[in-house]
């Protein structure tokens, strides 16, 4: 059934978030609401202050760790809940552990809010599954043709080679990645035969939450009691907020690296003041976005955070009914700039 063109679309964007008026439910709202369906645990999508949270059951411990004592219920992928005759279901987004898309159905009309997503199977999160719909709300974090990711295996081989070389030179490798998602993706494929893997407290705390959900190598939390000599030659996983802090002095001599899609930009490594940049993103590249949209069979596309204007213009040229919408989601910029949640952990070590 074609998407309705009247003044009452199934989902609208207002000052609190993405709203379904018929069910009085918000999707990933950025201001406090009564009932919120949450796609995943990153801070720009799961915020504190809602009265009731609904999310995938593997995301429940993640957001409780981040947000504290909240009223939250978990459902499985493909499980349907009905609110005032509107059907909601969650489907794999492949972004990070616990991430989902939200499918919304009412009177034969189907919308899908993708949240953040990627098409490459990272080996720890449930792989992305396209969902047939009339309207698709997509992020555009890396919505430029210049973004084309290399296979994860190739990037991890580069990282392990870098670590081995640093170890042979008597240096510690300090690799920056967001404490939720990116750090565990890196950890999963680090080669422990090279040496010991150490973690910043913010990453270790989150990894402890996620260990029941995935098989990770052994790690050692860096505390005041851990000696500098013990760390030398090892791999240290740290959040971006630790860069430039007094905490990192314990690693001398060291080399720094950063894993992010933004490392694809020429000059990004220099601007971030790191020795090595590894292009690894938990978001789609250009082709991943296009193939995902095509697989949904949708007619209408709403483009949100990222290169939304450019991406939207291209979609319209391809025959889609596309427009942009303003949100308070940040995509991978949130990961790069995530310092507030790391501050206490940094000061404690």
From TrEMBL:
Top-tier EC class: hydrolase
Alphabetized InterPro entries for the sequence: MBL, RibonucZ/Hydroxyglut_hydro, Xnuc_lig_assoc
GO MF term list: exonuclease activity; ligase activity
Keywords of the record: Exonuclease, Hydrolase, Ligase, Nuclease
Record-listed E.C. numbers: 3.1.-.-
Keyword Nuclease: yes
NCBIfam families xrefs: Xnuc_lig_assoc
Alphabetical list of PANTHER family matching this protein: BLL1145 PROTEIN, CLEAVAGE AND POLYADENYLATION SPECIFICITY FACTOR FAMILY MEMBER
UniProt name for this protein: Ligase-associated DNA damage response exonuclease
Taxonomic path: Bacteria, Pseudomonadati, Bacteroidota, Flavobacteriia, Flavobacteriales
